[in-house]
Amino acid sequence: xxxxxxxxxxxxxxxxxxxxxxxxxxxxxxxxxxxxxxxxxxxxxxxxxxxxxxxxxxxxxxxxxxxxxxxxxxxxxxxxxxxxxxxxxxxxxxxxxxxxxxxxxxxxxxxxxxxxxxxxxxxxxxxxxxxxxxxxxxxxxxxxxxxxxxxxxxxxxxxxxxxxxxxxxxxxxxxxxxxxxxxxxxx
Amino acid sequence: xxxxxxxxxxxxxxxxxxxxxxxxxxxxxxxxxxxxxxxxxxxxxxxxxxxxxxxxxxxxxxxxxxxxxxxxxxxxxxxxxxxxxxxxxxxxxxxxxxxxxxxxxxxxxxxxxxxxxxxxxxxxxxxxxxxxxxxxxxxxxxxxxxxxxxxxxxxxxxxxxxxxxxxxxxxxxxxxxxxxxxxxxxxxxxxxxxxxxxxxxxxxxxxxxxxxxxxxxxxxxxxxxxxxxxxxxxxxxxxxxxxxxxxxxxxxxxxxxxxxxxxxxxxxxxxxxxxxxxxxxxxxxxxxxxxxxx
Lengths: 187, 294
Fold this sequence. Notes:
The complex is a heterodimer.
Chain A: E1 3-5, E2 14-17, E3 20-30, E4 38-45, E5 51-57, E6 61-63, E7 67-77, E8 81-85, E9 92-96, E10 112-118, E11 121-126, E12 130-138, E13 152-156, E14 161-164, E15 173-177, E16 182-183
Chain B: H1 3-23, E1 27-28, E2 34-35, E3 48-51, E4 58-62, H2 67-75, E5 81-88, E6 100-109, H3 113-126, E7 133-137, H4 138-145, H5 155-164, H6 174-190, E8 195-202, E9 211-212, E10 215-223, E11 226-233, H7 238-254, H8 264-268, E12 277-283, H9 284-292
Parallel strand pairs in B: 1-5, 7-8
Antiparallel strand pairs in B: 2-4, 3-4, 5-6, 6-12, 8-10, 9-10, 10-11, 11-12
């Protein structure tokens, strides 16, 4: 894999750090009045999702990570594995349940997701910003109530619990923002 | 803030600085910005200008700091002086670094670095900055935020420390690694301190400051973690300047950077040594931006 010098650092560049692929989210050149420049870099570990900060000596080079982000369709989950398909090549990819902790509540069959591949193996999934989910359990709301006055928890068909307006009832489909886990309307 | 208000604020800020010095009988000077010799610092690069193409073309160098030209004045009996001027540096680009910036440089005769630090606090007070002031020696800062005894840790042991932090150990000189560790381990902690002086630097980082025992009488001022000022108890004798310049010139050749000649013009103007004095350079835009953040 190619190596990248600090002068090539930019947001989104994928690097190998401590054995994990990471993506640069912020790169700041720090030049003391007297002394050598260094790069203070914020990175996201693409496997653990954690953010880390590291300082590189200017001119230092770091191994790049073979990471690709592909649009894929979510097909189905067989209990322990999640199956995705690249619609261009029809290649299918399988992701273990453990890597799906943050997103399993937002995956709807046939939806297009972004799958991150490292050395051709899927390591994470980003669902669409908005998904349509069905309410399977919630307390009955009050008649005549309109949006805006508080809310109530509702369990969706995917298992995720979202705060919804009081007028929403079981069986309705609602739009959910997957970045904030917030109710975003009914259509 | 609209353009006019922003300009007035800046204008007022500079007027307050001039008033502060006027009250203390510190005289404003202007020194040449086009120099015959580039700066010797290993990690500061001068911008080269080609002049006199129609007469006899030669290279001149934009000043990276008014320091040496002002020291010529001091050696010739100027007394307390200050200057506000634009300085130029090549190969500097980033969120806090630019190819040109406005510098306030001033010298106080008979002051040591602690008196100068107190004077800077008074200047900041006059500019409306009343924040709490912290003072930490370089060694104390490392003890406070790490378990490193920075003055008594040799190059090899310091590389081991860098390695345990997952950092590069590929350094030519111990001072570069000290600065690197300071940037990575100490500076982020200084973000919580509105005004923090770091003083008594390791002798390998003495720059043009006097050395005593294990430390150089040099200080830096950080505002919320941003380096604002750099000051010294100034070297006085031409021969000590010559040694420090030669150290930097040799470093430049090891680093394969453009070679720099010894500034003989400066050295010969120090036939009378500098009076004992302390001097400091302050980045005006950085200072203004810290004030505007409030």
